[in-house]
């Protein structure tokens, strides 16, 4: 178990398996909002779904209306359970999570390299804490 | 971010769901941008009106807003997808969704202005006052030319600011941060509105910052050229302001190779099948310029002119003249993500606007012949 301080952006608490990426996401052009899958062949999460995962990625890029894509994912029940931004948390992710009730923290400067596919992650945004543990 | 007791209560939902959601959005954005507090605004201008921009998710989000939720400050709206008084060639599905979006905004109490140049139409707040503008050309214009402060806002942040009357105090609202770290020095004579647009596009792309320096005389910046620079900057990056007050800056020159480079990026065709003016929408100054240039002539190709309805009502004589020359005057909408100009009908268009060129190429997948207004009239009018 490991506790890491992360700044709260959108409150709430959730736990799940980590989905880790080093690449930014353009929500508007890369996501299939029905399945939650990333459909950009160049992306390291190609064909993986955000559904029910704890998404750990740098930040969103592109048009700010990408925020509504998080809302689509939520309506379709394929949203990530919580999100950790590892670069500067951007306003697309911040506003998208705010309207979709997805807990969000800023994990700038934190290394998540030790994570593997069995790592359970708890994002406790209200207490500004991320807890890493193995299943 | 510190909230007052009243703001905290609103965030907890004591004053209703609409305010709760609006404060939630502002607190998230404020946290992300390291804002210390919320600060009152005089005016909000909302983007995300055209159905092509916010899509079905936007329609759903707006329609579930509580009917008792109302805006607290003067709030104006960006263009929508078509001209409400014309028989547009638009699918029933698009019309249905577009009307749903408009009804949602109107129920909040916003003005149905459908314009991307609110600064040319409405009474302006005083210099130094704070607004929340989500239309990028408008945010850059008011910051740089009028000294009114705005961050480059989004559809959701401007909506939340309209409902609360507040915005997170960060970035371009703070005097010390309204300073560039990179400045662009033009090494060539920049004369036409299109070249000013290319300069803006280059500056926005290079700056990678909220403010960029432009080494030029304020006298060379009339309203037409200022609009062109603002739209160019707003299109290419995150930058929300330009200034000629430059101190210790990294200098970057803008010469022949640089302007050729950005032009090649956007100018993908020699000729076009449709002439398009507007993006930003034309104001009185540009309409006068266009009217004088086309006086007694006729367009040899179809020509669409996008301008706000209020502007057409101010100068009916000029509008009639342009109609006689063959121009199709289109209100309520603009070229940015427009459903009115499609690849099915046109392989390429002709325009003087950098913003129009960018969105035609990237969103509508249509080629662009980029020329200044005078050259377009010379080539395509007789």
Plain-language structure description:
The complex is a heterodimer of chains A (135) and B (382). Chain A has a single domain (2-134), classed as Glucose Oxidase, domain 1 (3-Layer(bba) Sandwich), CATH 3.50.30.10. Chain A has helices at 27-30, 67-75, 91-100, and strands spanning 2-5, 7-10, 13-20, 31-32, 37-38, 54-57, 82-85, 104-106, 119-124, 129-134. Chain A is α/β, with parallel strands linked by helices. Chain B has three domains: 5-174, Aconitase, domain 3, CATH 3.30.499.10; 179-264, no CATH class; 268-380, Aconitase, domain 3 (2-Layer Sandwich). The termini of chain B are far apart. In chain B, β7, α8 (223-236) and β8 (242-243) form a beta-alpha-beta unit. Chain B has 14 helices and 14 strands. At the A-B interface, β2, α2 and α3 of A face α2, α3 and α6 of B.
Descriptive terms for the model:
heterodimer; A: alpha/beta; Glucose Oxidase, domain 1; 8-stranded mixed β-sheet; two-stranded antiparallel sheet; 3 helices; globular; B: 382 residues; alpha/beta; Aconitase, domain 3; 3 domains; 4-stranded parallel β-sheet
Topology:
The complex is a heterodimer of chains A (135) and B (382).
Chain A: E1 2-5, E2 7-10, E3 13-20, H1 27-30, E4 31-32, E5 37-38, E6 54-57, H2 67-75, E7 82-85, H3 91-100, E8 104-106, E9 119-124, E10 129-134
Parallel strand pairs in A: 3-6, 6-7, 7-8
Antiparallel strand pairs in A: 1-10, 2-8, 3-9, 4-5, 9-10
Chain B: H1 5-12, H2 17-32, E1 38-40, E2 43-46, H3 51-63, E3 74-77, H4 92-108, E4 132-133, H5 136-146, H6 155-164, E5 166-168, E6 182-186, H7 193-207, E7 212-214, H8 223-236, E8 242-243, E9 250-254, H9 256-266, E10 274-277, H10 284-293, E11 303-306, H11 309-314, H12 316-324, E12 327-330, E13 348-351, H13 354-362, E14 367-370, H14 373-380
Parallel strand pairs in B: 2-3, 2-4, 6-7, 6-9, 7-8, 10-11, 10-13, 11-12, 13-14
Antiparallel strand pairs in B: 1-5
Helix pairs in contact in B: 1-2, 2-6, 3-4, 5-8, 7-8, 7-9, 10-12
């Amino acid at each position: 178990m490991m506790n890491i301080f992360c700044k709260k952006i959108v409150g709430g608490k959730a736990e799940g398996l980590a989905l880790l990426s080093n690449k930014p996401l353009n929500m508007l052009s890369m996501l299939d909002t029905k399945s939650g899958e990333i459909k950009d062949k160049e992306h390291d999460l190609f064909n993986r779904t955000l559904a029910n995962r704890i998404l750990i990625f740098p930040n969103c890029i592109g048009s700010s209306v990408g925020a509504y894509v998080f809302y689509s994912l939520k309506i379709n029940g394929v949203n990530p359970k919580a999100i950790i931004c590892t670069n500067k948390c951007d306003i697309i992710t911040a506003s998208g999570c705010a309207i979709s009730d997805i807990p969000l923290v800023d994990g700038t400067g934190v290394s998540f390299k030790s994570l593997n596919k069995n790592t359970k992650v708890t994002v406790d945004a209200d207490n500004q804490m991320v807890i890493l543990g193995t299943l | 971010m510190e909230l007052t007791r009243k703001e905290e209560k609103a965030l907890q939902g004591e004053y209703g769901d609409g305010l709760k959601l609006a404060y939630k959005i502002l607190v998230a954005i404020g946290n992300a941008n390291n804002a210390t507090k919320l600060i009152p605004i005089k005016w909000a201008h909302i983007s995300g009106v055209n159905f092509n921009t916010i899509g079905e998710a936007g329609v759903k989000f707006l329609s579930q807003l509580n009917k008792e939720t109302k805006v607290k400050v003067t709030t104006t709206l960006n263009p929508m997808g078509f001209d409400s008084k014309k028989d547009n060639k638009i699918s029933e599905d698009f019309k249905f969704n577009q009307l749903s979006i408009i009804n949602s905004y109107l129920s909040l109490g916003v003005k149905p202005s459908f314009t991307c140049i609110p600064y040319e139409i409405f009474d302006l707040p005083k210099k130094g006052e704070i607004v929340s503008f989500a239309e990028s050309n408008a945010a850059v214009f008011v910051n740089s030319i009028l000294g009114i402060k705005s961050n480059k806002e989004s559809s959701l942040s401007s909506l939340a600011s309209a409902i609360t009357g507040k915005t997170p105090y960060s970035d371009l609202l703070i005097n010390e941060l309204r300073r560039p770290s990179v400045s662009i020095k033009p090494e060539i004579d920049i004369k036409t509105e299109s070249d000013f647009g290319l300069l803006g596009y280059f500056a926005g792309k290079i700056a990678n910052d909220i403010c960029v320096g432009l080494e030029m005389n304020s006298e060379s910046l009339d309203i037409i050229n200022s609009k062109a620079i603002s739209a160019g900057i707003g299109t290419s990056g995150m930058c929300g302001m330009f200034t000629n007050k430059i101190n210790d800056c990294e200098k970057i020159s803008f010469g022949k190779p640089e302007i050729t480079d950005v032009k090649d990026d956007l100018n993908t065709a020699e000729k076009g099948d449709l002439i398009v003016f507007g993006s930003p929408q034309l104001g009185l100054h540009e309409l006068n310029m266009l009217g004088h240039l086309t006086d007694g002539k006729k367009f040899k190709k179809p020509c669409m002119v996008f301008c706000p309805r209020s502007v057409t009502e101010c100068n009916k004589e000029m509008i009639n003249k342009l109609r006689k020359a063959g121009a199709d005057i289109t209100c309520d909408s603009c070229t940015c993500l427009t459903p009115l100009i499609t690849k099915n009908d046109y392989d390429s268009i002709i325009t003087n606007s950098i913003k129009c060129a960018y969105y035609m190429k990237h969103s509508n997948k249509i080629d662009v012949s980029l020329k200044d207004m005078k050259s377009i009239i010379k080539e395509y009018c007789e």
